UniProtKB/TrEMBL annotation:
Name of the protein: Homoserine kinase
Catalytic activity: L-homoserine + ATP = O-phospho-L-homoserine + ADP + H(+)
EC number: 2.7.1.39
Ranges of residues in domain Aminoglycoside phosphotransferase: 27-255
Keywords annotated in UniProt: Amino-acid biosynthesis, ATP-binding, Kinase, Nucleotide-binding, Threonine biosynthesis, Transferase
ATP-binding among keywords: yes
GO MF terms, alphabetically ordered: homoserine kinase activity
Length: 320
């Protein structure tokens, strides 16, 4: 979240007149983030979040609105967009597409404890159960096909050893996915890092920032979570956090045999996905705004750890 397009109080007060959210009281820009302008808005009735979309494919915004509406309707803790009196969520403000959301409670967990890991795993399991019936479609823009097509763009910036590492991994993923067969698919969050969740103590207040949402292999989402939520500084997996997330998730949605077989490769592939995307930002496609890119080395470290130490055993399934 950040502010790239400033807004004035009167401008936002007029904007709010389209909605049944109360009268404007206060506006505060939110620092941080890389893509959109974000503001906290206070009315005499509630706390809201206003987002202006600064870049990206604006024609894809209806998909995100439909996905957030759908998950909210199914009691998944996501901020369902506020619709105006005509029933429309996607608006325009200051010449940019805009969405208004309820402000979810809590803060980002920097070092998630086991209770928070269990809460996140349970919520993701519930999300994936209902998301398999979501009718919208947006192919995963960062799946194996993307890795195959794009990884060559960064090879010239890598050491010979890292070039070999990346090319060999892509080859291995191709073989592993060819053998795996069909995997369960549905709508994904696509970027469920700790800073895209809000907690009040051990209670999950909300899952936010679904603008990487897409449809594809559910296992992809789970691997992203484990690589962020259950990984130590040296890239190795923490068994207690790993099991806390997966115990809760698998109780909601057990893996198929194909998913279990592909799990180690998916952990490596999602690590490579973020190593590659961060390398692209550093060397090939820098951000539109003056922001510091994320360090690619973090996910190179994770990838190396997954290669050297493999995946931890998956927990036994106890369904609810």
């Amino acid at each position: 979240m950040a502010v790239f397009t400033p807004l004035g109080d009167a401008q936002v007060a007029t904007f709010l007149e389209r909605f049944d959210v109360g009268a404007f009281k206060a506006l505060k820009g939110v620092a941080g983030g890389t893509e959109n302008s974000t503001f906290f808005v206070t009315t005499d009735q509630r706390e809201l979040v206003l987002t202006l979309f600064e870049q990206g494919e604006h024609e894809e915004l209806p998909f995100f609105v439909e996905l957030m509406d759908y998950l909210d309707e199914h009691r998944i803790p996501v901020p369902g967009p506020v619709h105006d009196r005509e029933g429309t969520a996607l608006q325009s403000l200051a010449g940019k597409p805009a969405l208004l959301f309820p402000r979810m409670p809590g803060s980002h967990p920097e070092s998630p404890n086991l209770a928070q890991c269990r809460a996140l795993g349970d919520a993701l399991g519930r999300l994936h159960l209902v998301s398999q019936h979501f009718p919208g479609q947006r192919p995963n823009p960062r799946d194996l096909h993307w890795l195959q097509a794009v990884h060559h763009k960064v090879l010239g910036y890598l050491s010979p050893d890292d070039q070999t590492l990346m090319k060999n991994q892509v080859d291995e993923f191709e073989a592993a996915f060819a053998e795996a067969g069909e995997l369960p698919c549905g709508a994904l969050h696509g970027d469920l890092f700790r800073d895209n969740t809000l907690f009040e103590g051990d209670t999950l207040g909300g899952i936010i920032d679904l603008y990487n949402g897409c449809t594809g292999d559910l296992l992809f989402d789970v691997a992203i979570v484990i690589n962020d939520w259950a990984t130590d500084d040296d890239g190795r997996l923490d068994a207690k956090r790993h099991d806390a997330v997966l115990d809760a998730y698998l109780a909601r949605r057990p893996f198929t045999q194909a998913e279990r077989a592909l799990w180690p490769a998916m952990l490596r592939m999602t690590a490579l996905r973020y190593w590659l995307s961060r390398l692209l930002v550093v060397y090939v496609d820098p951000p539109a705004h003056d922001l510091t890119p994320h360090d690619p080395e973090r996910f190179r470290t994770i990838l190396k750890a997954r290669i050297d130490h493999g995946a931890l055993p998956l927990p036994e399934v106890t369904t609810r």
